[in-house]
Amino acid sequence: MQYTYNKGMPQVPHDIHAFRRSLRALERQVELSLASQTECCGVTPAQCHVLLEVAEAGSPSVSDLALALELDASTLSRAVDGLVKAGFVLREEDPHNRRRYLVSLSPAGRKKVSEIDRVCDRYYEGMLASLPAVDRGLVVEVLPRFTEALKAWRSSCCGSGCRDPRKEAKA
Fold it and tell me: Which pLDDT score is estimated for 73?
């Protein structure tokens, strides 16, 4: 993408603004969808993500969960604490490292994951079915790549600001 400059400030092409507007709308819709789906399952969105990650990973450590979900330790701890109290997960000392704790699903947690999967699968199958087949295929194909690109770009940013496209254009 080419940037033009006016008084040293990049002039962002109009399509970037449209993209960002669409991305904000998508973020709001995903947040609202997730809130309604998890509410009917009786867990918070953070707890839902923890349950699904534990289901995929088996018995991850708390620190592995924090890395996978990109959550700070206190947020993850609160989510895990709530899930332990609800009887959905077990938190046990790692037999190989007494300073680590492993998180695993309880029988009730496995049922909860099945319920979440059923509700979310039905929701997104219906939503995807409302798209033309060609668009459905594109969304399913591109979304994981877009997610990884966003994650990689965010990881490459430093502190409070990202790379300067002016410097990259000169390189």
Answer: 82
In a domain, 168, yes or no: no
- Per-residue pLDDT tens for 116-138? 999 999 999 999 999 999 999 99
Give the chain's domain count: 1
Q: Whats the size of the chain, residue-wise?
A: 171
Q: Is residue 157 part of a domain?
A: no
Asked whether residue 47 is assigned to any structural domain, the reply reads: yes
Host domain of residue 49: 4-130
CB 88 within 8 A of CB 102: no
Q: Is residue 88 part of a domain?
A: yes
Residue 52's closest CA among 92, 81, 79, 86? 79
At residue 156 the predicted structure's pLDDT band, cuts being 50, 70 and 90, is confident
Quote the pLDDT of residue 54.
97
Helix residue ranges per DSSP H, the chain: 14-41, 45-57, 62-69, 73-86, 107-129, 133-156, 165-170
Backbone angles phi, psi at 70, to 5 degrees: 55, 45
Q: Which positions ≥6 away from 120 have C-beta within 8 Å?
A: 37
**What is this structure's pTM?**
0.77
